[in-house]
Design brief:
This protein is of the alpha/beta class. It has ten helices and 16 strands. The chain has helices spanning 53-67, 95-106, 143-155, 166-177, 216-227, 231-238, 248-277, 297-305, 326-331, 337-343; strands at 9-13, 17-26, 29-39, 45-46, 49-50, 73-78, 83-91, 117-126, 133-142, 159-165, 185-191, 196-202, 205-212, 284-288, 308-311, 318-320. Strand 11 and strand 12 form a beta hairpin. The protein is globular, with a radius of gyration of 20 Å.
Length: 351
């Protein structure tokens, strides 16, 4: 069951922007009360790491002021090289026993000193091939990255109470909005500015998670290089090909070239999952993230993968407050999955 904590604000730190969402749970359903969006300067956040803390803080302060959310509980998420998510197999034991031994179990799977990371886990269930074993989703995040995001929230008059993983936040958003057949294997693919998050679910439980260093920035840089234009103009043309006028066909060819690379990486992950999990084929892909706004990306991936593809709507089952600017919200709908997933969390959540 999903729970939504009163006054919990979801803060999504992307590599190109910060998004914030505040939800309210009512007898008539979930309501989006407030949201805000602010672009970040180039390279303020790179691969999940904050490179310009002052700029990020000032941007978030503006957002907090606009939403009037000072002193509220907040959740955020981390991703990138400082985050490790692995499916592991351990001897069957209770959750309490695993919590006591998880650091020992984790040492063989994590390329960091276990003293340098926060570790958590989710018990997926018994191993299908050996009843004496169970499958566990192991999560580790570098303490310095988690602490830095927590400090930024604190410095901006918010109370950090939960730090999640991007992929898990998107799963929460999916659970709120979609009710697929539990027997289906579903892939949630978040096409961000600098990375792709892939999470594959079976019976609504994550069985495969992977991050790929590829994203919207690759489209922008390819357009900039080929057309010899500035980055801002290339960024604009990325999601508005027609604005290129006589060069529209050339821009489309550039975008299709990058889309080919993106789709091949996603398909490789699907193939790896199929060949190693023994669980079968992915039945459906849901796309989210800024690159989901690229014209025809869903059809492109469908044609290459022969898997049904749909653009995720993070507000499918969310009522929108009359105070929310619908036009502004529609501009960031594909980018909202992580933030909505975070805003659904509650204090004390660890799933």
């Amino acid at each position: 069951m999903l729970y939504i904590s009163k006054n919990l604000v979801g803060i999504d730190f992307g590599s190109s922007s910060i998004k914030a969402f505040k939800l309210k749970d009512t007898s008539k359903g979930v309501i989006l009360e407030k949201f805000a969006f602010r672009p970040l300067i180039a390279d303020a956040i790179v691969d999940g790491a904050v490179m310009d803390a002052i700029s990020v803080q000032e941007t978030l302060k503006d957002l907090v002021s606009e939403m009037k959310i000072k002193n509220l509980n907040a959740s955020t998420a981390v991703s990138g090289h400082s985050v490790i998510v692995k499916n592991i197999t351990v001897n069957t034991m209770s959750k309490e026993e695993l919590r006591e031994s998880i650091y020992v179990e984790a040492e063989q799977y994590i390329p960091f000193d276990v003293e340098e990371v926060y570790i958590d886990f989710h018990i997926v269930g018994p191993d299908e091939k050996d009843e004496s074993l169970m499958n566990v989703l192991l999560v580790a995040a570098k303490k310095d990255q988690v602490d830095e995001y927590s400090n930024i929230l604190t410095n901006c008059s918010l109370k950090p109470v939960l730090v999640d993983i991007d992929s898990f936040a998107i799963e929460n958003c999916y659970e709120l909005n979609y009710e697929d057949d539990p027997d289906k294997i579903v892939a949630l693919v978040n096409l961000g500015a600098s990375k792709i998050n892939i999470s594959i679910l079976r019976n609504r439980v994550p069985v495969f998670v992977r991050d790929i260093n590829l994203g919207g920035k690759n489209y922008t840089e390819a357009i900039q290089k080929e057309l010899q234009i500035d980055y801002e103009e290339a960024e604009r043309l990325k999601t508005n090909i027609d604005a290129g006028g006589e060069r529209a066909d050339e821009i489309k060819a550039i975008i299709d070239g990058v889309s080919e690379e993106v789709c091949q990486e996603v398909i490789r992950s699907m193939d790896f999952f199929r060949n190693t999990s023994g669980l079968g084929e992915v039945n459906k892909i849901y796309l989210s993230g800024g690159c989901a706004k690229i014209q025809g990306i869903d059809e492109f991936l469908n044609n290459r993968s022969q898997i049904e593809v749909e653009i995720m709507n993070p507000f499918k089952n969310v009522k929108i407050s009359k105070n929310v600017d619908i036009t502004a919200l529609s501009q960031i709908t594909p980018l909202s999955a992580v933030g909505i997933g975070l805003a659904m969390r509650k204090v004390g959540d660890n799933q």
